[in-house]
Amino acid sequence: MNRNRIVLFDGECNFCDASVQFIIKRDPYRYFSFASLQDDVGKELRKQYQIPDNVDSLVLIENGKAYTKSSAALRIAKKLDGLWHLAFLFIVVPSAIRNRAYDYIATNRYKWFGKKELSCMLPSPEERQRFIA
Fold it and tell me: What is the pLDDT of residue 42?
């Protein structure tokens, strides 16, 4: 399992779950492993990388540094198969502008996509290996 690039995600958010599934399908080289912000591993990584409590969506830990918001999303896209890596070109847009769009989506994600109930998707054994427990 690759622990050089860890994606932390909101385990209660349907949009975040769909985002993790999107990444897995487009990451044939298994660059990323995953952990929920709410589980023990996620909490420990938040503490280790000094990720503020108010960060409640996507976080990328890469090469010993934590990236949040649009910087995390663009760095993830850079490693995905297909043309998704071209999204990284938006990194030249000032982060204040990028993060405004990111924050708008993050703020509305529960309203638009809902929150998970008690049941959740069961990953295949291969996918399960990519989640840090």
Answer: 92
Is residue 21 a contact partner of residue 118, using CB atoms and an 8 Å limit? no
Q: Which sign, positive or negative, has the C-alpha torsion 24, 27, 33, 37?
A: negative
Q: Which residue has the tokens 């708008």?
A: 104
The angle formed by the CA atoms of residues 37, 41 and 23, to the nearest 5 degrees, is 55
Tokens of 115: 């929150």
Strand 5-9 to 59-62 pairing = antiparallel
Burial of 102 (0-12, 13-18, 19+ CB in 10 A): buried
Separation CA 78–CA 70 (nearest Å)? 12
Q: Which residues of 24-41 are buried (b: 16+ CB within 10 A; e: fewer)?
A: beebeeebbbbbbbeeeb
The pTM of this model reads 0.81
Q: What percent of the chain has pLDDT over 70?
A: 88
Burial class (CB in 10 A: 0-12, 13-18, 19+), 87: middle
